[in-house]
Amino acid sequence: MSDITIRNLRDDLSFGALVTGLDWSNIEDETTRQSLRDTFAERGLIVFKDMEPSARMQVAVSKVFGPLKDHPTKTTPRDKETGEEAQGVIDMHYRPDPENPEAGEGLVEYKGEVLARYSPWHFDHCYNDELNYAGVLRAPINAPTGGRTGFMDGVELYRQFPQALRDKLEGKNVIYTLDTRLSKMKYGVNFKPLTENSGNIALLKEVAIFPRAMHPAVWERETGEKVLHFGPWMAVALAHHEDAEGDALLNEVAHEMNRLGEGTTAYWHDWLPTDMVIWDNHRMLHAVEGCSARYERQTLRTTIKGDYGLGYFEDGKKIGEVYREVA
Prior knowledge:
Residues 12-302 form the TauD/TfdA-like domain. The chain has one domain (5-326): 4-Layer Sandwich (Double-stranded beta-helix). The protein contains seven helices and 21 strands. It has helices spanning 30-43, 55-65, 154-160, 163-169, 200-209, 244-261, 319-326, and strands at 5-8, 17-20, 45-48, 90-94, 108-110, 113-116, 119-122, 134-141, 149-153, 173-176, 192-193, 213-216, 218-220, 226-228, 235-238, 266-269, 276-280, 284-288, 291-292, 297-304, 312-313. The strands form five sheets. The chain has a seven-stranded mixed β-sheet, covered by helices on one side. A four-stranded antiparallel β-sheet has the order 11-5-6-19, with no helix packed on it. The radius of gyration is 19 Å and the shape is globular.
């Protein structure tokens, strides 16, 4: 059995770890698994290098940290290659139109360039009453340039955020909806939406039945660390402040996050097909810088169960009740 090597992802980051040497010879060893879980709890993000680039390995890595969870929406594309044991593996695949790549789906203009697969800062399942504990991502198909995934740790973000803004967020909930259209984003918008996704018609049917979800802008871990956990994408209002003042606050916070995300506060991962990344969805925010609309890009995400217990639907319903009512 070979040993794994664990070190800090970067010396100037307070979060993130880099793991090498994980393979089929040691992934079932409980000492190795516990070491990975302990590292993850402390650092919030692990980049695995030189991994077997397979769905089977992605599922095995995911199950080190917990059971898999299906995605809460029906319209999100699932990966059809991984089989039933990989329930909930979602397939985010952009295929350009070779005749007219700048007429593709979900395109934005950012800093003068037309980009595909651009995603602003967010946390997964913000529109749901329950979050997932973590996500595991790999990228089998990458653009030759661009397409990096960014990660910001909410613990470090809280430390670095201007105190005046931080104080205004303490004790506040943010309202989120399932509407993922970038053209409807309200806060911190620094791009121009160009085209919508064809799946939006089906998505909007789900948007119509989903209650609004509430999540705290700041929460405290069992370790006593405070986490700034606001995702500008899919946020629609500040709870009990659905007015110009509330919107102005969230917009200012979002633009400050954009500023910090372009500096050393964030880690931006440049993908290889043999990389896998897991992040703690309760404390980390992530984003995708996008890539040229000329290039194909595919990422596959595994979702891991485990809620932090602080979110809720506005009307008190659970997700199962929502879907049963329209079945």
